[in-house]
What does this fold into?
Amino acid sequence: MLQIHLRSIVLHQLALLFLAVALAPTAMCQGAQRVSVIRPERADLVESVNLVGTLEPIASADVVPRVTGYLGSVSVDVGDRVRRGDLVAQVSAPDLDAALTRAEAQSRAAEAGVSQAQAGLADAKASRDEGAADVRVAQAILTSRHHQAQMAAVLEEVQEKETQRTRRLVEQGAATAEQLEASEGALASAQAARRTADSEVDIAKARIGAAEARAAAAGASVTSAQVGVEAAAALVEAARAAAAEARTRVGFCQLVCPFEEAVVTTRHLHPGAHVSANQSTVLTLMDTRTLRVVLPVPEGDSVRLAMGQSVQLSFRAAGVAPLEASLSRISGALDRSTRTVRAEVDLDNSAQSLRPGMFCTAAIQVRSIPGAIVLSGGAVHTRSGPDGEPQTYVWVAQGGIAKQVVVTLGLDDGIVTEIQEGLSGSETVISAGLSGLRDGAAVEIVEGDSK
It folds into this structure.
């Protein structure tokens, strides 16, 4: 009987053991925490620097007169399109017109002075040539007189010898006193002729001196006349320059478009208004065929910019479609007042759908990450790490057990978060039902929540 009783006890205990084992999964399921899960995904990410930009014209200018006067007319108005050289306004400046008339009259007078000086030069040259001719004639006369004086001297010498011979003959009684008297008379005549010839030589020399003096004076007159011509020519050049300057200043009264093509954006003054040189703005013109988006880039992001980076632009104005462009230029220095770097994007505005002054949102793509592991929603959490620094982690459901996995984060655009390290992409990440969850706790995945 005892053996039967013992056998019954053993069998009862074995039955209880088998029942406990059979009921264990049900008990575990009844104690597991219900959670929702998501699965990491692969996505191509683009990191962007998001900024607010302003549209500016590629070129703009205030039309300002370079002369003082009164605004005579304005040929265009706001919204009108103009081309290079088109007259947009006219300044009335009577004093400049009078100055031009005066300068042109002075130029004509100076030119007349040149003609007079040239005529005086011609007269002086004629006098110089006449003086030179007189010198040549006087030199010829002097030569002739020299010859006559020489002949007279020879005749005097011959006659003197003849008289001496006659005087000896008279002493010898071979000639008469009358013959001696005649010979001495001939000698006196020869001496007189020689003295006359010498006088003619002196007169001829004096005539040469006078002729040379007149020629020298004529030559000085030519030099003076040449200086006068040069001075008159200089006056003409000065008068012409003054007339050209006056003509240029009168031309400044016409205000023209400086751009190949532009639109009038502002009209500041109306006809009759007084305008001051280089001060009064009449119109504002802008070349809007190309616009530039001006982006103030914070100092921290400025080092990540590079020429040619893609820029996505969206506009606040209704009806303006988003555009894709590229970074056109980057300033080489920060603005000291704003601590930003100026970056610009050029936009073709030939359709005139954009306006200077518009705002836009710009996303400059600074980095692309192909095939990145990403999580959406609030699946990433932060705790204090062993060193006291913040540590990011996710809850992973593995074999019905919750496990904390430390992850390294990358790009976060507010919708998805890049997981750089910690996940392979095949895990089941708990996204909801985390209240009170502990590492190693049993979890039950709610059907339909696993992706």
Q: What stands out?
A: Residues 407 and 422 are 4 Å apart (CA to CA).
